[in-house]
Amino acid sequence: MGGMEPADWSTRAGLAAIKATLAARIEGWREPVAYAVGLSPASSSPEWEFAHVNGPGGAHGLPAVVLATVLGHDGSSATLDLSVAELTAAVNSLAPAQACTETEHPNLAAWRATLADCEGNPARRMVAVFVADLDDPVTSEADGSMRATFHGHPPVR
Q1: Which residues in the chain show pLDDT less than 50?
Q2: What is the pLDDT of residues 10-28, one digit of tens each?
Q3: Starting from the edge strand earliest in sequence, which strands make up the sheet with 126-131, in order?
Q4: 4 SS3 class
Q5: What is the tens place of the pLDDT at every residue in 60-71?
Q6: pTM of the model
Q7: Angstrom distance (rounded) from CA 5 to CA 23
Q8: C-alpha angle 115/72/118, rounded to 5°?
Q9: Between the CA atoms of 126, 110, 135 and 150, what dihedral angle is there, to the nearest 10 degrees?
């Protein structure tokens, strides 16, 4: 490999290269088929809330790698507690991707909204849910709630 070219956050190809670089640093990385950041139920509702779910067939791989990097996770099916500091670090790591205007950035918007909700109600908890394979057992109530949002992919009980 030659010299390190500066990361290009302004194009899809640049974002793909950044994703590949980050993924290569995670031992045993596997791309999850689905992932999301969830917010624990508010007192009035029993359901976990997801501002954005990256469902099966989605193409938003960079946020998954950024989130996994912050959490020290390999992309396998899991539900991981997520602190405000960790999600803030993930937002800050992903924020330069906004330079790429040819793609939407739903995870950034969702993560920022989730942080705002959490700051407004410190009793609520955040989790990161990763699903490596749809056949994997559900790892938590949050995982089950997330999988229930998949169209045509009912959660396996």
Answers
A1: 1-3, 155-157
A2: 999 999 999 999 999 999 9
A3: 49-54, 34-39, 126-131, 78-82
A4: coil
A5: 799 999 999 999
A6: 0.90
A7: 17
A8: 10
A9: 130
